[in-house]
């Protein structure tokens, strides 16, 4: 029994089925493997099965993995809370940052991005349900953040990322994801060339896809139980 292949196949089938239910193509939704607290060996296994993009929440853990896996040519996404004193390392070692929620962080990432690298792909994290315990810009702050991102030479604004409130009420889930999609479309109407709506995880990816997600972030359902 090939458990990694079975887990990956199961997630891919869920994505395809969710897309089919709303007349979308499966290719419209990409998969980000969230590898927090997972070993380099498990990342190698998934990479051998065709997974190229991995998301990390903790900087030092991610840097160690990148050092060990440098020859694989993986695409690394930083998806955790960003502290000001960590922006240089993030700007130097990641291709994507999905958790930008403040002007100061945007400016530091741009100024600290090495000239030898392509512009940093950025998603603005929006706290769509205004939960005090969560990171993310309030919805009314996003337009100004997007305008700043567009003005910075080493930043390429790709879209929005959101982690809506946890609820078993599917109507509430749909409402939260729909609000993110509306904000995304408002930014596009304002002239921003966006292509990424990162929302949906293991427990709610079907709802997120039905409301327009183009990237889902999946951890345990891909890797199995997290290692300590």
What's a quick, concise take on this entry?
This protein is of the alpha/beta class and 228 residues long. It has one domain (3-223): Alpha-Beta Barrel (TIM Barrel), CATH 3.20.20.
Largest sheet: 8 strands, parallel
| Percent helix | 40-55%
- Mean residue pLDDT: 95
Order of helices and strands: HEHEHEHEHEHEHEHEH
For the CA atoms, what is the radius of gyration? 17 Å
Biggest sheet, spatial arrangement of strands: 7-6-5-4-3-2-1-8
**What is the strand tally?**
8
**Outline type:** globular
> Could you name the ranges where pLDDT drops below 50 across 5 or more consecutive residues?
none
CATH topology: TIM Barrel
Distance between the termini: 24 Å
How many DSSP helices? Answer: 9
The name of the CATH superfamily reads Alanine racemase
By helix and strand content, what is the structural category? alpha/beta
* Share of β-strand residues: 15-25%
Q: Tell me, what is the CATH class?
A: Alpha Beta
Give a structural overview:
- The protein has helices at residues 3-21, 40-48, 59-68, 87-93, 103-112, 142-151, 170-189, 205-210, 220-223, and strands at 30-34, 53-56, 75-78, 96-100, 120-126, 155-162, 196-198, 215-218.
- The chain is α/β, with parallel strands linked by helices and 228 residues long.
- It has a single domain, classed as Alanine racemase (TIM Barrel, Alpha-Beta Barrel), CATH 3.20.20.10.
- An 8-stranded parallel sheet has the order 7-6-5-4-3-2-1-8.
- Strand 4, helix 5 and strand 5 form a beta-alpha-beta unit.
- The protein is globular and about 45 Å long.
- It starts with a helix and ends in a 5-residue tail after the last helix.
- The model has no long low-confidence stretch (mean pLDDT 95).
């Amino acid at each position: 029994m090939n458990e990694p292949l079975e887990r990956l196949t199961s997630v891919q089938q869920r994505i395809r089925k969710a897309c089919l239910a709303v007349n979308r193509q499966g290719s419209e939704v990409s998969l980000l493997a969230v590898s927090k607290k997972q070993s380099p060996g498990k990342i190698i296994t998934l990479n051998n099965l065709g997974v190229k993009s991995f998301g990390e929440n903790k900087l030092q853990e991610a840097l160690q993995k990148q050092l060990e896996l440098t020859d694989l040519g993986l695409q690394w996404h930083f998806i955790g809370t960003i502290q000001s004193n960590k922006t240089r390392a993030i700007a130097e070692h990641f291709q994507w940052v999905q958790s930008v929620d403040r002007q100061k962080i945007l400016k530091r990432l741009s100024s600290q991005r090495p000239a030898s690298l392509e512009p940093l792909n950025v998603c603005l994290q929006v706290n769509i349900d205004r939960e005090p315990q969560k990171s993310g810009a309030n919805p009314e702050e996003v337009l100004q953040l997007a305008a700043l991102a567009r003005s910075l030479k080493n930043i390429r604004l790709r879209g929005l990322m959101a982690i809506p409130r946890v609820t078993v009420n599917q109507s509430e889930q749909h409402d939260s994801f729909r609000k993110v999609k509306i904000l995304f479309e408002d930014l596009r109407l304002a002239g921003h060339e966006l292509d990424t709506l990162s929302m949906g995880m293991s427990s709610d990816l079907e709802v997120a896809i039905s409301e327009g997600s183009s990237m889902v972030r999946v951890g345990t359902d891909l890797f199995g139980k997290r290692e300590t």
